[in-house]
Amino acid sequence: MERQYRYYHRIIAYMEGNYMKDLSLEQLCEEVSLSTTYVNHILKSCTDRTFIHVLNEMRVKKACEYLEEDRLKVREIAEKTGFRSSKYFIKIFKDMQGVTPGQYKR
């Protein structure tokens, strides 16, 4: 279990440093030298979430910080936080926060 937590911290550290990129599970696994199955197992057992859910949570958390600064457009925030499209960003943001980024900003 202790080894699993060490791996978990390596996984999260890598994700936190790269969430703004077009990050895939395969890239992450290559970086931490673990299989996709094992990384998914670690994330599921430590967070009860999948890779993409953990990644989107990181991105939305950072997006909230950008929205509170109130300088950037939603499209710019989507790009800076690693979302490929504004439409997908808005959908994920609303699913996680209960409001759209525009509503959150107000």
From TrEMBL:
Gene: yesS_3
Pfam families referenced in this protein's UniProt entry, alphabetically: HTH_18 (PF12833)
Keywords: DNA-binding, Transcription, Transcription regulation
PROSITE patterns in the cross-refs: HTH_ARAC_FAMILY_1, HTH_ARAC_FAMILY_2
Classification of source organism: Bacteria, Bacillati, Bacillota, Bacilli, Bacillales
Matching Gene3D superfamilies: Homeodomain-like (1.10.10.60)
PANTHER family: ARAC-FAMILY TRANSCRIPTIONAL REGULATOR (PTHR43280), HTH-TYPE TRANSCRIPTIONAL REGULATOR EXSA (PTHR43280:SF2)
Ranges of residues in domain HTH araC/xylS-type: 9-106
UniProt protein name: HTH-type transcriptional regulator YesS
SUPFAM superfamilies with a match to the protein in the record: Homeodomain-like
